[in-house]
Design goal:
The complex is a heterodimer of chains A (about 120) and B (about 190). Chain A is mainly alpha-helical and about 120 residues long. Chain A is built from 4 helices and 3 strands; from the N terminus they run αβααββα. Chain A has helices spanning about 15-20, 30-40, 50-60, 85-110, and strands at about 25-30, 65, 80-85. In chain A, strands 1-3-2 form a 3-stranded antiparallel beta sheet. Chain A is elongated. Chain B has 7 helices and no strands. The N and C termini of chain B lie far apart (about 70 Å). Classes of the chains: A mainly alpha (about 120), B mainly alpha (about 190). The interface of A and B includes residues 37, 48, 50, 53 and 77 of A.
């Protein structure tokens, strides 16, 4: 059977983690790093190079954008850069979640021993 | 600024220039935040640089024009050739010494020279002794006036002779040890 061209392509793990972290709203690099740690129960700890490497690629792909707004300028360092999801990023994140859900559902159906978390 | 941060700053030089220009400051800010809160250890932060920098270079290479790619590739190949020649030169010298030792061992065998079982050991120890003597002569705590009294060329050539002799003795000793060991095993089977 020919492959469906409209199937969403798997996202690199770092990109997916950052998209998930940005669903909570716009955040700066360090907050993103911490949020990814929380989302993965500490299993993924991104370093600055990995984080900004992924951010660079996501900006180029239009998944996120840099924002000049500050949640509270009085409380924050003006040098920090904040990022937020774009509509493309939202779609990509939802698509990846659905892809993984389908994969898990099919895997559990064919291998019942996998069980549920 | 702490020494650790200085080292981290230096490590950031491993990234391509364009990436550094764009993300150096946010990365340093993130480094300071992480160190302040002790959320990430220094080795982990340094390891992240070592792992992610080559990837950024790959990305930068991909984004280059064809001329840029050719230019970069020619520089990398040039450096690789020079490194290969340096390593190759050392290997060539070692191969030459092994060949010399093999010829000597063969000549001894053809003339039916009976070597004592400790022959290889004596050669090796002799070589180490010559090396140590050379080291003492050239790096010993001698007064500067003594050093100045020796003409530069004489020092260079005598050093070459002493250290080459030491290395040949060590290599020949080890080689003859291997030959003797192999001969003994052959006899025992």
């Amino acid at each position: 059977m020919p492959a469906n061209r409209k199937q969403p392509q798997p996202l690199p793990p770092a990109v997916f983690h950052l998209l998930l972290a940005l669903r909570d709203g716009e955040q700066h690099g360090y907050a993103l790093m911490q949020r990814v740690g929380e989302l993965t129960d500490g299993a993924v700890r991104m370093g600055p190079g990995t984080l900004y490497g992924a951010i660079k690629r996501m900006l180029a792909d239009g998944l996120i954008e840099e924002t000049a707004e500050r949640p509270d300028p009085a409380l924050d360092d003006q040098r920090r850069r904040y990022y937020r999801l774009t509509a493309t990023g939202e779609r990509a994140c939802t698509g990846e979640v659905q892809r993984l859900e389908t994969l898990l559902r099919n895997a559990r159906r064919t291998s019942p021993k996998l069980g549920h978390a | 600024m702490m020494a650790a941060e200085r080292v981290y700053r230096a490590l950031l030089l491993l990234y391509p220039r364009r990436f550094r220009r764009e993300y150096r400051e946010p990365m340093l800010q993130l480094y300071r935040d992480a160190r302040r809160d002790s959320t990430t250890s220094w080795p982990r932060l340094a390891g992240d640089v070592v792992v992610s920098a080559p990837f950024q270079h790959k990305e930068a290479f991909r984004a280059m024009s064809t001329q840029g790619k050719l230019f970069t590739a020619s520089i990398i190949i040039g450096v690789a050739i020079v490194a290969f020649m340096a390593i190759g030169g050392a290997l060539f010298a070692l191969a030459l010494m092994l060949l010399l030792a093999w010829i000597v061992a063969r000549l001894l065998r053809e003339r039916d020279v009976q070597l004592s079982p400790r022959f290889w050991w004596k050669l090796t120890v002799g070589g180490v002794g010559v090396f140590a003597a050379g080291f003492l002569i050239f790096a010993g705590p001698w007064p500067q006036s003594w050093r100045d009294a020796v003409p530069g060329e004489l020092g260079w050539w005598s050093g070459m002779f002493i250290f080459s002799t030491a290395i040949v003795l060590i290599v020949a000793g080890l080689l003859s040890g291997v030959v003797q060991l192999a001969a003994r095993r052959r006899l025992s089977h």
